[in-house]
Design a protein that fits this description.
CATH topology of the largest domain: Alpha-lytic protease prodomain-like
Strand content: 5-15%
Helix content: 55-70%
Strand order of the largest sheet: 1-2-3
Distance between the termini: 49 Å
Number of domains: 2
Shape: elongated
CATH class of the largest domain: Mainly Alpha
Structural class: mainly alpha
Bound molecules: zinc ion
Amino acid sequence: MKRYFLPFWLIFGLNSLLSIYSGSATMISETVHSLLDALVITFSMYAMKLVNVKDSRFTYGLHRLEIVSSLANVATVVVGSIIVSLISLLYLIEGMRDQPVILTFASVIAFSLSLLPLSKRDETTRSGVWLHAVQDSLAYLIGILTGVIIIATGWYFIDPVSSLVIVSIMVLTSIKSMKGSLYVIMEGSPLDIEEMESELRKEIPGIHHIHVWDICNHLRVATLHVEEQSNVTLKELDEKRVKIEKLLGERFNINHVTIQFESEAERS
Ligand SMILES: [Zn+2]
Ligand SMILES: [Zn+2]
Ligand SMILES: [Zn+2]
């Protein structure tokens, strides 16, 4: 697990040293950004250890931490890149020049370190850390290119331009993840309920009033009603329940089902 967040603390350490050494405002804003990164990614990786902790209040466990963590990662990436680009805009307006050699040096090391967490995708994908690491690597790569161009040509105006490019990329690549997280929080159904109901009714005609929602990316919950004759036995209902649970698991990936049986007269 340390493999995921340690590189981000190393990047922060390096940026701090270079900030003190250079006094560069861009470097200082990079340091703030990398501190946010390190904090959020450390939080995310510890949160992933807690998702299965259940108690009498958190009866589903803490799987929503995956969603919270994804949103926190998206927010950090976007806010971090906005801070950095504001600083570089300020530099352009004030006609100040930064120290491209130090910035390029920092970007090269940060880029190599930010590639480390990308090797394994399981936990890091669920918590949004993987996307975050990809976005950071990309930003550092653009940073290297910018630095090299400035050193070679002296075109300092490239810096704020590339910062704005980075912000746009961060926002665009975050939209999908953010939408997905908000959809889960708003209890949007991952399936089209009408389609699902008509498909299920082919096999179990009495099915109605279906709710489906996701707790996280791999925990899907459903509740539904089934209309029954009033003279069926509990044993028959049990058999039907097992059949429905199997159907929902195999076809719709639903792993937690609650079924309400009701007679025609009492249908709700
Ligand atoms: Zn989960
Ligand atoms: Zn309802
Ligand atoms: Zn009903």
